[in-house]
Structure formats: C-alpha cells, structure tokens
Amino acid sequence: MEFTRDNIKNVEVGPELDSLVGTFATKVAPEIKWWVMDDAETIIYDECNYESDARDALNKRVYEGLKISKKEIYRNYSTSVSDAFKVLEIFKDRGYLFTVKNLAGGAWEVSLTDWDGRCDISSAQAATPAEAICRAALRAALRRKERGEA
C-alpha cells in the first residue's frame, strides 16, 4: 500500500492500518506465517512458521483446491491500546513528546511533537485511542519522509 495522506486518512482500522504503521511508522518487521488454506482463503487448515513446514502440511492433506499463502502479521496497533502505546514508546525514543486526550463526546486526540530543531506537531482524532495513535504516528512519519529524513 502506498504511503500517502489519503491512505493515512482513509485506510480502515485493522490489518491494513496495522501494516502501514508497522511498515512506515515503527519500522518493526512483521511476523511471517505460512498458511495452508483453501483457494478462496476462507479456511486456514494449518499455520506454520516455515515454508517447508507448510509444504509438508499441504502434502499430508488430500483435499483439492488448497494452497500455501505467506502472511505478514503485524501487531494489532490499531485495535489494541497496549500495542498502540508501544508505537508511542518508539516515537518517544525518537525524541517526540506526545499527548493523548479524551475529548468531549468520546473522541480521542493524539498529538506527536517533534522538537528536533522545530516545533512540528502531527495530530489525529479518532473514535478510539489506538486508532488516533496510529494515524498521528503515520502523519509524523510522513512529515519526516517529506522533509527527507528517514
């Protein structure tokens, strides 16, 4: 998925948003799993840590229409508050200050402030604190990218 302002704003909470956060904001590698599944990808028959184990598992099954699929599984950044706070810890280690606010009406706002030579604030509002953290972190990462910083 492309790393743009529109994607940050519009990507749905769940695996897609988690993938963006893992790839561009935290830069933490995903867990790799190999799944033996049906062609429609609706039933997972086996979950393996290695491709060779998945091939062995596939060879033991007598069903037609099965395949091996490689999956990159990121932490549940956008749905788990504890995983989302790991994102804030990473940004804190990078020199950011952060605030997390519960607004009137139940919405959440997260601001990340980069004090590295400038007061650069990236913020987001969302229905949950985890989602707000993810979107603010992605905005901060995009701003760094636009400035030519990794």
Question: Span between N and C termini?
Answer: 18 Å
Q: What is the count of distinct domains?
A: 2
Q: Which structural class matches the secondary elements?
A: alpha+beta
Biggest sheet features:
3 strands, antiparallel
CATH architecture annotation of the largest domain? 2-Layer Sandwich
Number of strands: 6
The order of strands across the largest sheet is 2-1-3
Q: Tell me the β content.
A: 25-35%
Could you state the CATH homologous superfamily of the largest domain? Answer: Bacillus phage protein-like
What gyration radius follows from the Cα positions, in whole Å?
19 Å
The fold-level CATH name of the largest domain is Bacillus phage protein
SSE pattern: HHEEHEHEEEH
Low-confidence stretches: none
- What's the rounded overall pLDDT mean? 92
Number of helices, counting only DSSP H or I runs of 4 residues or more: 5
Give the overall form: elongated
Spell out the blueprint of helices and strands.
Blueprint: H1 5-10, H2 15-26, E1 31-38, E2 44-48, H3 51-60, E3 66-73, H4 81-93, E4 96-102, E5 108-114, E6 120-126, H5 129-146
Antiparallel strand pairs: 1-2, 1-3, 4-5, 5-6
Helix pairs in contact: 2-5, 4-5
Supply the key terms.
alpha+beta; 150 residues; 2 domains; 28% strand; three-stranded antiparallel sheet; Bacillus phage protein
Quick synopsis:
With 150 residues, the protein is of the alpha+beta class.
Molecular structure report:
- With 150 residues, the protein is of the alpha+beta class.
- The chain has two domains: 31-73, no CATH class; 76-146, Bacillus phage protein.
- Helices cover 39% and strands 28% of the residues.
- It contains five helices and six strands.
- It has helices spanning 5-10, 15-26, 51-60, 81-93, 129-146; strands at residues 31-38, 44-48, 66-73, 96-102, 108-114, 120-126.
- The strands form two sheets. A three-stranded antiparallel sheet has the order 2-1-3, with helices on one face. It has a three-stranded antiparallel sheet with strand order 4-5-6, with helices on one face.
- Helix 2 packs across helix 5 (129-146) and helix 4 packs parallel to helix 5 (129-146).
- The longest helix has 18 residues, at 129-146.
- It starts with a helix and ends with a helix.
